[in-house]
Design brief:
By secondary structure, this protein is of the alpha+beta class. The chain has 2 domains: 289 residues, Aminopeptidase; 147 residues, 2-Layer Sandwich (Alpha-Beta Plaits). The chain contains 15 helices and 17 strands. The strands form 4 sheets. Strands 1, 2, 3, 6, 7, 8, 15 and 16 form an 8-stranded mixed β-sheet that branches. A hairpin with a 2-residue loop joins strand 4 and strand 5.
């Protein structure tokens, strides 16, 4: 018996040693995926002049409204006038078209008709300031104030910073007589914050009607994360190769209205409330797969030892990694389709039972999920045939995932490392929606990246109070777009 126990212990010890060896081997032989690039000299940027031009754009309150396409029309026309008046070389070199009243489509004609064109996207519109928070701003939100090394105001980051950095870069090149070999489109939508269904959709349809097929699109998106990814010291520039889908459902129930002194066993509010609780208690499954898995595997060789071991051995340790990612909403959203009840409507008097209750639930879909799979999940989770589940118009499935082994991705990767030599580059998943999803009829390759360094503190300002963009960040954005145009259009 003693000999048997010794043999079992020996086998267990051997298994542990072998497992440790496999973990160590996978960790030590996991090579860096960063491409070797030589940093380029920093292009001179007149920071004072470019900051002032962006500040003028911020002062224009370009807020789009769903119900009124002509809301703030003067502000949108002001953007066009600002571009025309402040960027003469850009205006002279490119053909301009106004689409759907306020969206701007510029064409920089290439010399090679056989070269597939590209498009750089940005949007003019901004989100409104939350009512009641105006006094929380250090400066007036639409003041376009420059102070303490920052350009302050709504839209400085999202997305006028991108838009005017693109125009500044093109202005520099046009002044120097740059002529692209491939055609470049600049598409500046006017309603991205309310879905882009007027501007981006119309511009994409216009390009399609002309037989245009784009090599790739670059839109706003992920950024250079500084101190955000646990276990990684260098900044990480995440290129969004995918974007979540957007599905909203109305969930409703009816009941017999009556006096609150005689409530039935089942009320409309009670039915919808139970349905929402069931949905929250049965979330979509979380899995470390697809884009997020590629993200982690790309940065793994540059992580601290513990995280490097875990990510290099997802075949075994994926459940532990998944539990860590589930701890915060920002990381959990990258590994599951999310469920968010956002609106509840019922009743109009405290002593009257309403005959109807409705809730609105918003879902952000991982690639692979669809509106149909969301409907199936919701009906199964609610498990109540009395509850009506109705999709809202305008829902969109996730766009296709763009490849990382393409020449266009490599060029984007190279450009980032040329301009930002201290960063790691990795593919990533965009959890919010962008205008780019409206261009699937003219390309199947879409990247989403904003060349801005940002910390957790900066991210809080996005769509929030005290939005701002550092002047040094803005100058680097211009350098990035200039280099991208040089790398892709020659």
């Amino acid at each position: 018996m003693l000999r048997l126990i010794r043999n079992i212990l020996a086998l267990v010890l051997l298994a542990v040693v072998l497992l440790a060896g496999v973990l160590a081997y996978n960790t030590l032989t996991n090579p860096s995926r960063q491409i070797a690039v030589t940093a380029i000299p920093r292009i001179t940027v007149d920071e004072d002049a470019v900051s002032k031009r962006l500040a003028v754009a911020i002062q224009l309150q370009t807020i789009a409204e769903v119900a009124n396409p002509d809301a703030n029309a003067d502000a949108f026309r002001g953007i066009l006038a600002h571009i025309e008046g402040s960027y003469p070389a850009f205006t002279a070199a490119l053909k301009r078209e106004v689409v759907a009243d306020y969206s701007l489509l510029y064409t920089w004609q290439g010399s090679d008709p056989n070269a597939k064109p590209i498009a750089l996207l940005a949007h003019q519109d901004v989100v409104p300031v939350a009512p009641g928070t105006e006094g929380d701003w250090e400066v007036p939100p639409f003041g376009g104030i420059i102070k303490d090394g920052f350009i302050w105001g709504r839209g400085s980051w999202d997305d006028k910073g991108n838009l005017f950095a693109i125009v500044e870069a093109a202005e520099q090149l046009a002044k120097q007589g740059f002529k692209p070999k491939r055609t470049i489109y600049f598409a500046f939508g006017a309603d991205e914050e309310i879905s882009g269904k007027r501007g981006a959709t119309a511009m994409a349809a216009l390009l399609q009607s002309r037989g245009v097929k784009l090599d790739f699109i670059l839109d706003e998106g992920l950024f250079i994360a500084v101190g955000i990814i646990p276990g990684v010291d260098p900044p990480v520039a995440a290129i969004g190769i995918a974007e979540k889908g957007y599905v909203t459902l109305d969930i409703g129930a009816t009941a017999t209205p009556g006096h609150s002194s005689l409530p039935p066993k089942e009320t409309a509010i009670g039915q919808v409330s139970k349905a929402l609780v069931r949905l929250e208690k049965k979330p979509f499954p979380a899995e470390v797969k697809g884009v997020m898995r590629e993200t982690l595997e790309t940065v793994a060789p540059h992580m601290d030892l513990l995280n490097r071991v875990a990510i290099s051995n997802l075949w075994l340790l994926e459940p532990l990694v998944r539990k860590q990612l589930e701890k915060t909403p920002s990381t959990e959203s990258t590994i599951r389709t999310t469920t968010a009840p956002t609106i509840f409507n019922a009743g109009n008097k405290e002593n009257v039972l309403p005959g109807k209750a409705d809730a609105t639930v918003n879902f952000r879909l991982l690639p692979g999920d669809t509106e149909e799979s969301v409907l199936d999940h919701v009906r199964s989770a609610i498990a109540n045939s009395k509850i009506k589940v109705v999709p809202k118009p305008g829902n969109t499935n996730p766009p296709p995932v763009s490849r990382t082994d393409s020449e266009s991705y490599r060029t984007l990767n190279t450009t980032i490392r040329e301009v930002f030599p201290d960063v790691l580059v990795a593919p990533g998943l965009m959890v919010a929606a962008t205008d780019s999803r409206n261009y699937l009829n003219v390309t199947d390759t879409i990247y989403r990246f904003t060349p801005v360094r940002a910390t957790n503190e900066d991210v809080k300002r996005f769509h929030g109070t005290n939005e701002r963009l550092s002047i040094s960040n803005y100058a680097d954005m211009i350098r990035f777009y200039r280099r991208l145009l040089e790398n892709t259009a020659q």
